[in-house]
Write a structure and sequence with these properties.
CATH topology of the largest domain: Thrombin, subunit H
CATH architecture of the largest domain: Beta Barrel
Structural class: alpha+beta
Distance between the termini: 161 Å
Strand order of the largest sheet: 1-2-3-6-5-4
Radius of gyration: 46 Å
Oligomer: single chain
Number of helices: 7
Strand content: 25-35%
Shape: elongated
CATH class of the largest domain: Mainly Beta
Helix content: 10-25%
Largest sheet: 6 strands, antiparallel, barrel
Order of helices and strands: HHHEEEEEEEEEEEHEEHHHEEEE
């Protein structure tokens, strides 16, 4: 017999586990144990090296964004600095830009001028070449007689306003403007309206032919700061050019050294502007008033053009017989009418009475001038109906002539 102690030793596994384990069951169809695949250990891949090209590309994109943004910001800043709003310029300085009119031996008799202080106006000499009489008209209708002091280089003329002019003087730029800066031209139309138009920059100028008419010769050119940086002069539209501020500065003072004195014209027949003069209606625009306006427009325009034969078709046969062509011509050889206004229209005895006010420029030695050369006239014309409309049958003075400086 085996001793009890020996049995205990046979039934105990000395590693602490009780009894031998049964053999591990192998599933049917399983491959032999020798064919079992060992467990594959997955190792962590090494860290990826930095993508240098990606970093470069990202930096390049950021750089382009910064450069583009900076360029765009710079463009907007420069555009704001060099662009110009001509409407704002007109509102800011228009009161000191004047219309220039004259009855002269040569030239156009009309232009634009700029008031520079000390009763001096700069304009284009073509507007006042050999004048017998000259005047300036402000934007709000104030009229002042003016005398030609002389002409300077590049076709600039200097006028002395006879009476005080209550408009602020404009400043001429002390230096040349930015060549890329926008500029605006202010000038009058033939009908007497002040207009503003852009003329480009010095480096990118707009052709003056696109904006010019004869009445704009002498027109000042402004920059964004409302300073005068030039003036348009020339003998005609095709030859118009912008005179620089340096030339204007030298002439905008009393007794300018570069000024050639001019005593005016001495001709026996002078002309003013040749554009139509249409009286303003200050009465209701009835059919009768419009007919009277049309007759007076033709009369004043043809008189200004010295078409003394053509104007006679607007006379009745009675007036044509009483006023010979030679007498009509002799009485208007130096006269220029402007600023006409019809203030009253009445009917009587089958005719129409038209009261009209206008300003006349003429030679101081003309018939009835009495040493003056610019008057306001208050006349009443008698018009009679005909198959061709209303015809002039005569005229009479309503009030005594007054100097055109008086309102």
């Amino acid at each position: 017999m085996v001793a009890a102690g020996d049995e205990e030793d046979d039934s105990v596994v000395h590693d602490g586990r009780s009894g031998p384990r049964p053999p591990r069951r192998v599933p049917a169809g399983a491959p032999p144990l020798t064919q079992l695949q060992p467990t594959i250990r997955r190792t962590t891949p090494p860290p990826r090296r930095p993508w240098l090209f990606g970093r470069f590309l990202a930096g390049l994109v950021v750089l382009l964004l910064v450069v583009t943004g900076g360029a765009a910001a710079g463009w907007f800043v420069r555009q704001d600095r060099t662009s110009i709003n001509e409407v704002k310029v007109l509102a800011d300085v228009g009161s000191s830009v004047v219309r220039v009119l004259s009855t002269a031996c040569s030239g156009t008799g009309e232009g634009t001028g700029v008031y520079v202080g000390d009763n001096l106006v700069l304009t284009a000499d073509i507007a006042v070449r050999e004048p017998l009489a000259a005047a300036i008209v402000t934007r709000d209708g104030v009229i002042r007689r003016a005398n030609l002091l002389g002409t300077g280089p590049d076709g600039v003329a200097v006028l002395q306003v006879v009476d005080r002019l209550s408009v602020p003087p404009l400043q001429i730029a002390a230096s040349a403007p930015d060549p890329e800066a926008g500029r605006a031209l202010l000038g009058y139309t033939a009908s007497g309206n002040l207009a503003a138009q852009t003329v480009g920059s010095e480096h990118r100028p707009r052709p003056l032919g696109e904006v010019m008419n004869a009445a704009k010769l002498g027109g000042p050119v402004f920059d964004k700061s409302n300073q005068v940086v030039g003036m348009v002069t020339g003998d005609n539209l095709a030859g118009s050019r912008i005179v620089p501020a340096a030339t204007l500065r030298a002439l905008a003072v009393r007794n300018a050294s570069g000024l050639t004195p001019n005593s005016g014209g001495s001709c026996t027949e002078s002309r003013g502007p040749q554009s139509a003069v249409t009286p303003v209606l200050q009465v209701s625009a009835t059919e009768l008033a419009v007919q009277a306006q049309r007759t007076m427009t033709n009369y004043l325009t043809l008189q200004n053009r010295h078409d003394f034969a053509g104007v006679r078709k607007y006379y009745t046969s009675r007036l044509a017989g009483a006023l010979p062509l030679t007498k009509d011509r002799q009485g208007h050889l130096t006269t220029y009418f402007f600023g006409a206004t019809i203030t009253e229209i009445t009917q009587s005895d089958g005719g129409v009475n038209v009261r009209i006010n206008y300003v006349t420029l003429f030679s101081s030695d003309a018939h009835g001038a009495e040493g003056k050369n610019c008057n306001r006239l208050d006349q009443r014309y008698r018009l009679l109906p005909s198959a061709n409309g209303l015809l002039i049958d005569g005229s009479s003075q309503v009030t005594s002539p007054r100097p055109c400086d008086q309102t």
